[in-house]
TrEMBL record:
Membrane-crossing residue ranges in chain numbering: none
Family affiliation: Belongs to the beta-catenin family.
GO molecular function terms listed in the Swiss-Prot or TrEMBL record: protein-membrane adaptor activity
Native source species: Thalictrum thalictroides
The keyword Cell inner membrane appears for this protein: no
PANTHER family tied to this protein: VACUOLAR PROTEIN 8 (PTHR47249)
Official protein name in the record: Kinesin-like protein kin-ub
Gene Ontology biological process terms, A to Z: nucleus-vacuole junction assembly
Keyword Repeat part of the UniProt annotation: yes
Length: 164
């Protein structure tokens, strides 16, 4: 897992094709999420897009596992410190990065156990922005549906007097 090419293949290809819990656990256990975050330091747009894609795929797989009842608890992405980078890049000027990150936020937000961390991490504002301004209707609809379905997000939006 030390060479970037092998790591990139490991994180992107298998996660897109299938979402085995064992692979996710292995990636986390071997520092895969933190390694992804470390790769962003180079700042190259292609690398950032691939990291964003890997994070979006990971979030999607976690979301699917949670919905199927095979995963409980907070997202490993949140546990491993990816949320600040995700929030920071949610409105990235490069559309491939932005779209992947917008999807990752929506997938993370679909699970109530992540809501408080997302609020404290600034992700709620990005979800509201996505639900209003995203150029892709499917992502905009997903963000809106996610905000509406979360009691925690709804309570915070009421507290802040923000309409969705």
């Amino acid at each position: 897992m030390q060479d970037n090419v092998g790591f990139n293949t490991l994180i992107c290809t298998p996660v897109v094709i299938a979402c085995p819990d064992k692979l996710q656990t292995t990636l986390r256990g071997e520092g895969g999420i933190k390694a992804l975050l470390g790769m962003v330091r180079c700042g190259h747009p292609d690398v950032l897009a691939q990291v964003a894609r890997g994070i979006a795929n990971f979030a999607k797989c976690e979301s699917r596992a949670s919905s199927q009842g095979t995963k409980a608890g907070r997202s490993l992405l949140i546990d491993d410190g990816a949320l600040p980078w995700i929030v920071q890049n949610a409105n990235n000027e490069a559309s491939p990065i932005r779209r992947h990150i917008e999807l990752a936020l929506c997938h993370l937000a679909q699970h109530e156990v992540n809501a408080k961390d997302m609020i404290s991490g600034g992700a709620l504002w990005e979800l509201v922005r996505i639900s209003r301004d995203c150029s892709r209707e499917d992502i905009r609809t997903l963000a809106n549906r996610t905000l509406i379905s979360s009691p925690t997000f709804q309570a915070e939006l009421r507290r802040l007097r923000i309409e969705c």
